[in-house]
Each structure stands twice: as C-alpha cells, then as structure tokens.
Recover the amino acids of this structure.
C-alpha cells in the first residue's frame, strides 16, 4: 500500500515529533491552505509583505522568522488560530478559586519532600569504620 507524503505530514503526533518534523507539518498545512484558496505564492507574498522566495522557503519548511510566520497567517486570515496555539495563561478559573481570585505574578518551584542534602559517597569517616 502506497503512503501519500501529504497524508504523512498531516498525521503526525505533535507530542513525540521532533521540532523539524512539526515545522515541516505546519508549513505543509499552510501550503495546502494557500492552494485550496487558489492563491499563488506571489499573491500571498504581496499580501503578507514578504518575498515570493520567502513563501517558497516557508512551504518547504526551511525556516523563517516568527514575524514572517505571523504575517503569512494574517494574510491567509487564520491568525486567530494562534489563540489556540498559545491560550491565555491568566484564564484558569479553577486556579483562581484556589488562590482567592488573585492573579499570579511569578512562578515558584513546588515544595518537595526531597529538600535534603544530596547523597554522596562518604569520605571514609563513618562511625562503623572505626
């Protein structure tokens, strides 16, 4: 059975994939969105304010700046998807109830029962060795 490369790009497990695979999958999806809307690379480049070569590099997963990525999302009208990618961390109703409605200002490491000094090999002066 033959596997389509495009299907492989869409069917990736983001929890275990390497960053270059995730980048390639996202870029392939952007290319598919562009093509499905019958937009050429030149048209998208003009709307996004970047060069057509940059769009080509983006679609090949060859690395572009975050600014370029956001410009392309905006030009395609899908920038609202960034909200799903990075949800607002201040909107955590359960946590707000637990802390009395106050907003957290900084992160603190959780307390651990292993706050003892780290174990190390003795220097040979144990009580049993005398």
């Amino acid at each position: 059975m033959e596997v389509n490369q495009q299907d492989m790009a869409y069917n990736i497990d983001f929890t275990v994939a390497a960053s270059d695979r995730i980048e390639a999958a996202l870029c392939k999806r952007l290319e598919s969105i562009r093509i499905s809307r019958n937009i050429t690379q030149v048209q998208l480049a003009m709307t996004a304010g970047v060069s057509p070569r940059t769009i080509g590099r983006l679609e090949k997963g060859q690395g572009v700046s975050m600014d370029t990525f956001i410009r392309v999302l905006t030009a395609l009208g899908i920038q609202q998807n960034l909200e799903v990618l990075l949800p607002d961390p201040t909107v955590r109703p359960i946590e707000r109830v637990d802390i009395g409605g106050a907003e957290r200002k900084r992160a603190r490491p959780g307390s651990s029962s292993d706050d003892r000094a780290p174990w190390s090999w003795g220097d040979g002066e144990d009580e049993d060795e005398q």
Remarks:
- Residues 5-85 form a domain with the 434 Repressor (Amino-terminal Domain) fold (CATH 1.10.260.40).
